[in-house]
Amino acid sequence: MSDWRADTHTFLNALIRIPDSDLDAFARTMIGADCVWDVAAPVGRLKGVDAVLDGLIRPLRRALWRVHRRDEIFFGARNRRHERGNWVCSVTHYVGIHDRDLFGVRPAGRLAFVRSGEFYRIEGGMIVEAKIIIDLLDLMRQAGRYPLPRMLGTEMLFPGPATHDGILPNDPARGDASLDIVEAMIGDLHDFDPDTFHSEAQTGTHGHWHEDMMWYGPGGIGSTFGWDGFVNHHRASFLRAFPDRRGGNHFCRIGDGDYAAFSGWPSMTMTHRGDYLGVPATGRSMTLNVMDFYRIADAKIVENWVLLDYVHLFAQMDVDVIARSAAMDSHFS
């Protein structure tokens, strides 16, 4: 019997590399005619196969010479949320020489690892829905045209799982247990000290996070180590800027093996009440599209990969990070 998760994995890797002359016909073998793909700013909603090809796949193929996918995590399961359905998700990089503009991001003619978080709903062997966040801020950094102040955490390539087993783990029962741990953590995140930003239930013997937790954040934030690193290099600044943030509005939550993932579109609603990454408070209500991917070890979260639609977030602050980056000279020039 065919494995819909493995079939989707094979298809997506072939889609980005297949010869141009075969692309249209091949895409229609697994992308539903009436599909809807939501892609992070500035792309937006794409309806139908032609829109997906013209709005996302062909731009990636044009902008990155000899582009290919390098999947770090890829798994699938039945969605636990009310929409249900079968979903696959991935943390991947689109790898190639960035020698043409990609969605307005100017190239430096150098090797680029364009990180992407992706969720796909599968019905009858076809992709009928997708949500995708491509980290354009990190691509701007790689091109030498980073438009914001330096990142709070460490600027780095997203690594794969330390255990190197994130591709099609295929253990649904353990995946349910992994997702249980993540959902318990989500439930406790809103309980925190407003002065220290510490959450009592998150760490320690009975906490949800491993003492050696790795938190891999997107462009604009960077990556951190340990709970204190997470607080100091991301959480404190975010909660000062958006103290009333509310999350958890997820369209998908799935788990497989030692992995779990969720996404909301949008996931967060909040008010911009404090300065954030060089932008003064606007007092505006804002939303944020979010994707989180987790690895569990010893019943605790030990690795977390995070994709955030920051191009859209900053647009809500009247900051066009793509235009700002495009106006800069690359420091590689």
TrEMBL record:
InterPro entries: Cyclase_SnoaL-like, NTF2-like_dom_sf. Transmembrane segments: none annotated. One of its GO terms (biological process) is polyketide metabolic process. It holds the Pfam family SnoaL. Gene3D superfamilies: 3.10.450.50. This is Nuclear transport factor 2 family protein. It comes from Oceaniradius stylonematis.
